[in-house]
Amino acid sequence: MSPFIARPEHGVVWITGASSGIGRALALRLAEEGYKVAVTARSHEKLLALQAEASGLAGSIVVLDGDVTDVADMEHTVAAIEYQHGPVALAVLNAGIYLPARGEDLNHEVFERSFAVNLRGVVNCLVPAVRHMRARGYGQVALVSSVAGYGGLPGGAAYGASKAALINMAESLNFELDRMGIHIQLITPGYVDTPLTAQNKFEMPDIVSAQQAADAIAAGLKTPAFEISFPKGLVYRAKLLKLLPYSLYFRALRYFLGSGRKRRSVGPRITAHPAE
């Protein structure tokens, strides 16, 4: 049986972390295609501006304030979408943060905050969404991870670990969700030009615009593919690097990053979040 692919007539698309970056661009892209898009974030004013921008499009955007780190809030959010706007046919769990975590300055807060948003925040949304989809016998879910989840990188002990967990989560759930008629996908972007990456003071390899990212994701969501990854060159290089034995993997990273004296200053260059 072919995987379920959500179309406008199937129900609502729910996008978390939609106030800026990829989430915002994707919401507009799908609204252009005629979807009703429910957007969630903690910035109410930015969501209202997004809704206003979509007023002339074929579809529509509806605003629901919400904090993905709050279990009860996400339960209520999914229930509100289902009751007021229609079934959640597609959930794009995009909300995330990047906080550097380096060996010389390890602290609990960085890990707790990273995992609270990037990992537990996804679970808080995934559980109620899947429950409703399972009851109907169909649905589509996309988890936004990152190429940083493919392998350990300097500065990425918290961020990379959370995104690697999403990769494993999606792979594992694919077996059971497929049998329930729920199509799960994994989105692994490289560098995307967003307000977050705009803070970087270095050249980011193969960077794409938020609109290009949204176009790639929108196209991928309409296919049976498990992974939606871009830009392809960066993704292939990251995957090939991870195939190396650890001795060569660490040696290759040290080569690309420079000497040990420089490693501290270049860490954020490859770990700043490309997706939000």
Automatic annotation (TrEMBL):
<dbReference type="GO" id="GO:0016020">
    <property type="term" value="C:membrane"/>
</dbReference>
<dbReference type="InterPro" id="IPR002347">
    <property type="entry name" value="SDR_fam"/>
</dbReference>
<dbReference type="InterPro" id="IPR057326">
    <property type="entry name" value="KR_dom"/>
</dbReference>
<protein>
    <submittedName>
        <fullName>Short-chain dehydrogenase/reductase SDR</fullName>
    </submittedName>
</protein>
<dbReference type="Pfam" id="PF00106">
    <property type="entry name" value="adh_short"/>
</dbReference>
<dbReference type="InterPro" id="IPR036291">
    <property type="entry name" value="NAD(P)-bd_dom_sf"/>
</dbReference>
<feature type="domain" description="Ketoreductase">
    <location>
        <begin position="11"/>
        <end position="190"/>
    </location>
</feature>
<dbReference type="GO" id="GO:0016491">
    <property type="term" value="F:oxidoreductase activity"/>
</dbReference>
<keyword id="KW-0560">Oxidoreductase</keyword>
<comment type="similarity">
    <text>Belongs to the short-chain dehydrogenases/reductases (SDR) family.</text>
</comment>
